[in-house]
Specification:
Order of helices and strands: HHHHH
Number of strands: 0
Strand content: under 5%
Number of helices: 5
Largest sheet: none
Distance between the termini: 42 Å
Radius of gyration: 14 Å
Structural class: mainly alpha
C-alpha cells in the first residue's frame, strides 16, 4: 500500500498533499505558519512533499542522500512545468 501511495504521489502530488493534510498528522509541527505550505502546494508540490517528509522524519536536510532526493524532486517539478510549455510551443 505505501508503494501505491508513493506512485500516486509522484503522479498527482497535489492530491497526495490534500489527502495527507485531511487524513493524517503528517504536516503537524513541521511548519510554523501557513504561507510556506500554500506556496509549496501551488508551485513545487513534489519538492514540498519530499522536504516535509525529510523534516517529519528528522532526517539531516544537509546530508548527501537528502539533498539528492530534494534535487530529484525539484527536477521533476520543474520538468513537469517546462514540459507543458515546450509541447505548446511545438504544436503552434
Amino acid at each position: 500500500m505505501p508503494c501505491l501511495f508513493g506512485l500516486l504521489a509522484l503522479a498527482f502530488p497535489r492530491i497526495a498533499i490534500l489527502l495527507l493534510w485531511f487524513f493524517t498528522n503528517f504536516f503537524t509541527g513541521v511548519y510554523r505558519d501557513l504561507i510556506l505550505p500554500i506556496l509549496g502546494f501551488l508551485f513545487l508540490p513534489l519538492t514540498f512533499l519530499v522536504y516535509t517528509y525529510l523534516r517529519y522524519t528528522h532526517a539531516a536536510i544537509y546530508g548527501t542522500t537528502s539533498l539528492v532526493f530534494l534535487f530529484i524532486a525539484i527536477i521533476f517539478d520543474l520538468g513537469l512545468v517546462g514540459g507543458g510549455h515546450l509541447s505548446r510551443r511545438r504544436s503552434t
